[in-house]
Amino acid sequence: MSAGLLYALAGVLLFALGLGGIVLLRHALRRILAFNVMGSGAFLVLVGLAQRDGGADPVPQAMVLTGIVVAVAATALALALLRRLPEDRP
Amino acid sequence: MNGLLDPLPWLILLPLAWASLAFLLGPGRGGRLALAGLAGQLALALWLARRLIEGGPVSHAVGGWGAPLGIDLYADGLSAVMLLLTQAVALPLAFYARAYFAQGAGQFWPLAGFLLAAMNALFLAADLFNLYVTLELLGLAAVGLVALGGGAEPSRAALRYLVVSLAASGAYLLGVALIYGSYGTVAIAPLTPLIAAQAPLAVGLAAGLMLLGLVAKSALFPFHFWLPPAHGGAPAPVSALLSALVVKAAFYLILRLWLGPFAPLTADWGWLPALAGAGAILWGSWQALRTPRLKQLVAWSTVAQLGYLFLIFPLFGLKEPALQAGTLQAVAHGLAKAAMFAAAGILLKATGRDAVDGLAGVAGRLPLTLFAFGLAGVTLMGLPPSAGFLAKWLLIDAALEQGLWPLVAIVLAGGLLAAAYVFRVLRQAFLLAPEAQQFHPVPRRLEWAAFGLAAASVLLGLRGVELMALLGIGVAP
């Protein structure tokens, strides 16, 4: 098994963990964190699978950078919304 | 085709520009700017449609950089129809929003501009990853708009919408990763023959993940749960934008993938979205009949009407009529639902509360608004000569031709249920107002904007042929 495939499998595992968290957890902050775990999993698959011929493929790296920017923006928005909710009912 | 005189990049840049300017001007400012920008966008979309009719599909490499490093834009008939719908709905809604937000629009104008830029980019994107980025931008702008009203309840609805939207686009992104890992490209045009030639298991999984994510974003039953609180709780101009346009963007993408790269994988699965669509029509209409609140009623009606869009998937044995029925339904519902939410917003402002029971007496006070609501209802029920009638007629015709009787029954039952919930509102409106009822004055411009949209949804039925000719450009038979 190549290192790239190992990364990709770990990515799928992270993705599944994150998705499970979003579906099963009740607390909004935990769901936001779970979304970040899920996103990292998808990024890992993207970078891991594309490492063929030994070298790194630049295109998925650029995609992951874009994806990270999107994930940070989404997390910021989610946290801002969370702060507007009353403390007792998250 | 490149150069500055190309409508494709300007359809994205123009809304980005006026949205950024409106943001710099500060909260509540920028309405006039938005109107000017939207008029320009409508002209650009018309220009693009004309260019397509003359010369077929067009593409544009942004900044002169081609794929894979650069970004390609591509427009065919389906993109042009969706672009036209988007600008045609957004322009009257901008007139409406200027009058609606008399006491301050907050960040409505920048968010609406970013929303439209993301949507136009989505309709023009030519590769799966750029589609992911536009989906996320669209989702973030839409969530911001839902939360515009402030307060705990809209914020909670917005947060729930955001989490669903993020999980859905996460599934889509994992699908993109698997596809890139399998083929080394994410551009739609080269992918189509590659998937047709050989599709390993990972690609089937990718297609499933991407389509599932998009279905959740388009609020198809049973993933509809986030829609009524988000659309029903937002200010009326926002509800109209979201219900008329944003959910259609995810549907457009499903259609594009289903008929394009994933066609070899999806051929036998058309019954699944149709089954969910039938569930959406029945459950959405039933809830619309029961809910005590007016805007919730209109939002549940969106859930039901979205169901029709997914009835076309088993009919792609004959591609063109099914595609025409689906697209026409998307256009008809877009115009009618924008009108209906606009009218509901006016009724709310006039009566002061969001209740179907509180509508008694509005027929005498706001006849134009009620007429707009009724006309939009005519399109949703599918009565002639509306565009909704044409869409349902095409759908029934295609279903009969392929011997799918249950679909015909669902379409007819859905029409009757739509009539029932539309008349539920009209009946209340024609009752005599109680003595204590107070009516707040409403600007006439609000009423005319709602009426314009409703009239367009009915009259479009008379110009269906031109629209179908545009839609046919670039569709493989």
Overall description:
The complex is a heterodimer of chains A (90) and B (477). Chain A has 90 residues and is mainly α. Chain A has helices at residues 3-24, 28-49, 58-84. Chain A has one domain: Helix Hairpins. Chain A is built from 3 helices and no strands. In chain A, helix 1 packs antiparallel against helix 2. Chain A is elongated and about 55 Å long. Chain A starts with a helix and ends in a 6-residue tail after the last helix. Chain B has helices at residues 7-25, 31-55, 77-100, 108-124, 128-146, 152-183, 188-197, 201-217, 227-233, 236-259, 263-266, 271-290, 294-310, 319-351, 362-365, 367-381, 387-401, 405-430, 444-459, 464-471; strands at 58-61, 72-75. Chain B has 2 domains: 1-268, no CATH class; 270-477, no CATH class. Chain B contains 20 helices and 2 strands. The radius of gyration of chain B is 21 Å and the shape is globular. In chain B, 74% of the residues lie in helices and 2% in strands. Chain B is mostly helical and 477 residues long. The A-B interface holds A 8, 11-12, 15, 18-19, 22-23, 28, 31-32, 35, 38-39, 41-43, 45-46, 48-50, 52, 57, 59-60, 63, 66-67, 70, 73-74, 77-78, 81-82, 84-86 and B 68-69, 129, 132-133, 136-137, 139-140, 143-144, 147, 150-152, 155-156, 158-159, 162-163, 166-167, 170-171, 173-174, 176-178, 180-182, 184.
